[in-house]
Amino acid sequence: MRALVTGASGYIGSRLVAALLAEDADVVVGSRTPSNLRTFDFYDSVTAVSLDVTDQQSCAAAFAESGDIDVAYYLVHAIGESDYRVQDRRSAEQFAAAAARAGVRRIVYLGGFVPDDDHLSEHLASRADVGEALTVDGVELVWLRAAIVLGAGSTSYEMLRYLADRLPVLPLPSWLAEPVQPIAVDDVLHYLVASADGETVPAGSYDIGGPDVVPYRDLVFAYVEAAGLQRIGVPVPFVPTSLAGKVIGRIIPVPAGLAEDLVGSLHNTMTTSESRIRELVPDPPHGLTTIADAMARSVRGMVGEPPGVCALKDPLRLANTDAAWSGGDALGIRRRGVAASSDRTWSLIEALGGRRLLSAKPVAAAVRTNLDVVAGVNRRVASAVRRLTDTEEA
């Protein structure tokens, strides 16, 4: 099998390349700047071509240079950029048209769930647009639809981790009671690789999810438990996701536009509507990865490994080519909560409407006082860790 992988430098794409190579596939990787892929440990094992999905001529040239492609993986999204919905749809149309002209047999696309909801977020609506744009005559489309992907380096996981690491008190808006069915990245790769085979997975749309369905807030505290943290949850009702996205985008290192767009989807119910793919593709030997197992594996090995090594050892671990803002706070002391700031936490609670709730209860002063105590302890722990680190280096 000869496969073209778009988005090969991204979180899913880099791990997929390694997984396909492990299955003895002949892999072509597309990038706007192919030379940048030299930092990946799989570079010498693939064919790199120049590919810019926003440019029609570039799409045609990439397929011409790639030779006979059996399956093309579409893993490109412009989320977080201005007017990304229009850009995403146009790019998908151009890519699919070029694939059809090149005689590509199948396109495999990883998108998001499309809930039966009249108020889809811009993010989910854009993912649906791309799936429709990739549907062209003469090319089979397998559209895999997932919710949150768990694993160190995943944007959703990193957002969750930074919030839990940095805030000793976690604001809990009411929409965090909505159910979510996340899927670990190793299971995503399992389905992506299987979807290349038309005899195993016929063309069509398939929901993919993990074995657990929980409220979003339980997902947050699953990380808290795995990381060995002590955190308090404070309900903050009547907070729109749009406001939460803007606030969160300014207190964590994930790009603000990206954070806002992802948080904007959290009011939608994100669970599978069907599970047909499990009838076609057997579960992995050890079963689908649970939330507890995914969180436990994701907090290990915070020093990033090369993407190929990471993908083969455990895709949920951090790769050294994952986004520069992923991986937690400096010195690995984030697990002690040393990045937490009482001012930052209290400001977030106030911004999300927590003052209205707490002012009616005799707990506001205690929460504020405890935040100050936690922050003071955190600063002392950070200082001690730095002294120990300096001593060990000396």
UniProtKB/TrEMBL annotation:
Pfam families: NAD_binding_10. Residues 7-117 form the NAD(P)-binding domain. It comes from the Bacteria. Signal peptide: none annotated. InterPro entries: ComplexI_NDUFA9_subunit, NAD(P)-bd_dom, NAD(P)-bd_dom_sf. This is NAD(P)H-binding protein.
